[in-house]
Amino acid sequence: MTMSNTTIPLTLSPVRPQITIPEDLLRPAADGSRTLADTYGRVARDLRVSLTDRCNLRCTYCMPAEGLDWLPKDKVLTDEEITRLITLGVEKLGIRQVRFTGGEPLMRRSLEKIIAHTKSLKTDEGQAPQTAITTNGLGLAKRAQKLADAGLDRVNISLDTIDKKAYAKLTRRDRLDDVIDAIETSLEVGLQPVKINAVIMPGFNDQDIVKLARFCLEKGTQLRFIEQMPLGPPSQWDRSEMVTAEDILDELRTQFELTPVDKPRGSSPAALWKADDGHGLRGEIGVIASVTHSFCGDCDRTRLTADGAIRNCLFASADQEFSVRDKLRDGSSDDEIATVWAAAMWAKLPGHAINDPGFLQPDRPMAAIGG
Length: 371
Ligand code: SAM
Ligand code: SF4
Prior knowledge:
Blueprint: E1 5-13, E2 16-22, H1 23-26, E3 46-50, H2 79-92, E4 97-101, H3 111-119, E5 130-135, H4 140-150, E6 154-158, H5 164-171, H6 176-189, E7 194-199, H7 209-219, E8 222-226, H8 245-253, E9 257-260, E10 271-276, E11 282-288, E12 301-304, E13 309-311, E14 321-323, H9 325-329, H10 334-346, H11 366-369
Parallel strand pairs: 3-4, 3-12, 4-5, 5-6, 6-7, 7-8, 8-11
Antiparallel strand pairs: 1-2, 9-10, 10-11, 12-13, 13-14
The structure holds S-adenosylmethionine and iron/sulfur cluster.
């Protein structure tokens, strides 16, 4: 069967008023389902939902000290709009995992309600979707049990150093104790595995890599070092100064024997290592080389921003952003919205091109996209 192409006006964004996609993509199956496929053979299964662009920290690699120009309230999706899109994603578009992020997702009071709704859905495999949050941990200790009761499966907690002074300098807030509390409570209530995300910034926490690794292994959490990406204030990222995955591994090797974990990575961005300090401390550590070894070829993510734009990549530019907010508000059907979503993913580029000389940082900062 030959596949014909159609150019359809979608008025997706001022810069991309139309897109050419195969007709098949426009026609759902008899049960209304479609696949979020792209032209490179990737299929999106993992939905990242940004619940707010606001945050109670000011991490240097993410935001300026004064914060961002926060989205006005009426531009942010309501709970009903978010749950409608998640339902569509899970029930009709093949989404199997939903991760809530931001900004700081705990700043959304209805987080438990949104998670409970997500967990009540069924994926194309007949199970409830996996649910996770990425959080800075502030206030998590108090809510961890309620979140687990609502159906939250896992947490990623961001912690870049366990040195109190370095933490306060890096996040511009003195809240290290709250984060440690959050980690301990998450473990207690069974939000497992608890993963720790750590971004290493030259001059801020590059001295603390081994200490952080020891802390995480002792607690029984899974540490993931993430290379700093050009997604925050431009003055804070310099390709020639950044701490690379190799630098991090070299530092870890001063105290640990590292052996690669021999299992397929799938769509996971982390390269995993077995770490052993030779004195009984053992465990796994991951390193996400987002800049130096991109993993775009296996990406299975689709993103929804707090103001209702579908993004096919963290690094998508304005013409790769597809707002569905107006469609949600003008009475469009689920099928019309699904068409936009499918078209947005069809337009996904092969990779982020950070290392190309012509690379342009996305117009939105990380907190406004949803990390
Ligand atoms: N506020 C939550 C948190 O910090 O976990 C969720 C949002 S945050 C944008 C999601 C993740 O992105 C965090 O783990 C954070 O460390 C990471 N992140 C933020 N800016 C980054 C950057 N420029 N490069 C790499 N990772 C970054
Ligand atoms: Fe806030 Fe997370 Fe950005 Fe830090 S990384 S400023 S906690 S959104």
